[in-house]
């Protein structure tokens, strides 16, 4: 049985949908903090059990009978994130799982200025010490971030963000399809190659693409990191969220989120989705939706 955590979230839910196209529902289980919201899956034959990364004993029950557990990274940062991931890894091992698959990131590293990246690196170290075979999905940066960065720019005509480096933006849908493929029949041992979109683009190129799609002028303007941070705080963001966005640009300048690689397309059996194709649909729905 393959167990998927975070099945109520965007990535976990997309992986589950892909798995249901590969396997009978009875071979799939999910763990969720609010299992009642997944009653429709249970009716289809998927095993649904409560599971919270903060409750190690409950997780072991949620993972019972699993051959493989997909651990979707927690929506937190710092020591708390590593603690939660460690709980899930220990529970999977205790439940007898033969393989753990973890949603890491291509930029994982202990010195990254983008807060989730040291957490991913620390979690990968826990996986290495777990005694269980594991696959660490080195996912590219989510393309869903781009409409959020463009929200103000489409109103003002200026994309005012810090100096950046090219990012190999990658869609949730492509990553979910690749994860399902790895879960079912093509495991990697240890970290995968970077699973990215087909090209790495910078904010100047993003502005050009947005202008072409919307027919509105969008000019890229470089602003200092601290000016950008203060603008985010003035707009109502909490300090951790503002610091995370500043860290995104600092890490991209180091080249942490590029270049693009061929591994994702190889798993998909088709080209990965370009950022322009993604934005064609995302901006039609409205930026940030």
From TrEMBL:
InterPro entries: NAD(P)-bd_dom, NAD(P)-bd_dom_sf, NmrA-type_oxidoreductase. SUPFAM superfamilies: NAD(P)-binding Rossmann-fold domains (SSF51735). Residues 6-146 form the NAD(P)-binding domain. Pfam families: NAD_binding_10 (PF13460). This is NmrA family transcriptional regulator.
């Amino acid at each position: 049985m393959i167990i998927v955590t975070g099945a109520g979230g965007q990535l976990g839910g997309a992986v589950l949908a892909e798995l249901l196209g590969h396997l009978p529902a009875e071979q799939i289980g999910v763990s969720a903090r609010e299992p009642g919201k997944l009653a429709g899956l249970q009716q289809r034959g998927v095993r649904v059990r409560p599971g919270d990364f903060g409750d190690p004993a409950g997780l072991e029950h949620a993972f019972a009978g699993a051959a493989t557990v997909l651990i979707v990274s927690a929506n937190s940062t710092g020591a708390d994130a590593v603690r939660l991931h460690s709980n899930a890894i220990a529970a999977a091992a205790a439940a007898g799982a033969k393989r753990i698959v973890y949603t890491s990131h291509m930029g994982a590293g202990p010195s990254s200025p983008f807060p989730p990246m040291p957490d991913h690196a620390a979690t990968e170290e826990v996986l290495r010490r777990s005694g269980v075979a594991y696959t660490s999905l080195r996912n590219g940066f989510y393309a869903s971030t781009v409409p959020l960065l463009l929200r103000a720019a489409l109103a003002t005509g200026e994309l005012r963000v810090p100096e950046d480096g090219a990012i190999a933006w990658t869609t949730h849908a492509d990553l979910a399809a690749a994860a399902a493929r790895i879960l079912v029949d093509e495991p990697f041992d240890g970290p995968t190659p970077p699973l990215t979109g087909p090209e790495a683009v910078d904010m100047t190129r993003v502005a050009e693409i947005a202008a072409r799609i919307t027919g509105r002028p969008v000019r890229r303007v470089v602003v200092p990191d601290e000016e950008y941070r203060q603008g985010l705080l003035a707009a109502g963001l909490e300090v951790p969220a503002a610091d995370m966005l500043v860290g995104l640009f600092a890490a991209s300048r180091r080249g942490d989120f590029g270049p693009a690689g061929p591994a994702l397309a190889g798993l998909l059996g088709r080209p990965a989705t370009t950022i322009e194709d993604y934005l064609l649909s995302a901006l039609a729905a409205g930026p940030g939706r």
